[in-house]
Amino acid sequence: MSSAEFKMDIVHKYLHEGWSQSDLLKHFHIHNSMLQRWVNQYQREGIKGLKEKQGKTIGTNKGRLRKNPSSPEEKMKRLEAENAYLKKLLAVRKGVDTTKEKSLVFTIIHE
């Protein structure tokens, strides 16, 4: 029995066979919000509403939203700062260790 068939069976028992909500919850070990969601989906969309919808995003806004969206300019600025930091760090590790370069690395790290 598929997930949609299982849901349809429960919804049918609730809507057409006279099972009470509490009997369904106890018998099938489901939460009342789940039963209500399935009933509402069935009433809005029929059996189609009970089928899994994961992975079927429609439109151009697919995937997760970024936590910190940034403009191309902000991204470029961040990458330039990261590049400068890594160059200074590499120079320090190679032993080109002047006070001026150390202070630049310190400044970049703490910006």
- Cα separation of the termini: 59 Å
Helix content: 55-70%
| Main sheet attributes: strand count, strand direction, barrel closure | none
Question: Could you spell the SSE succession in H and E letters?
Answer: HHHHH
Low-confidence stretches: none
Q: Which class of secondary structure composition applies to the elements?
A: mainly alpha
Shape: rod-shaped
In total, the number of strands is 0
Residue-averaged pLDDT, rounded?
Answer: 79
Supply the number of helical segments: 5
Radius of gyration: 29 Å
Q: Provide the β-strand percentage band.
A: under 5%
Can you describe what's shown?
- By secondary structure, this protein is mainly α.
- Helices cover 63% and strands 0% of the residues.
- The chain is built from five helices and no strands.
- Helix 1 packs across helix 3 and helix 4 packs antiparallel against helix 5.
- The longest helix has 23 residues.
- The radius of gyration is 29 Å and the shape is rod-shaped.
- It starts with a helix and ends with a helix.
- The mean pLDDT is 79.
What is the element layout, followed by pairings?
Elements: H1 3-16, H2 21-28, H3 32-45, H4 72-94, H5 99-109
Helix pairs in contact: 1-3, 4-5
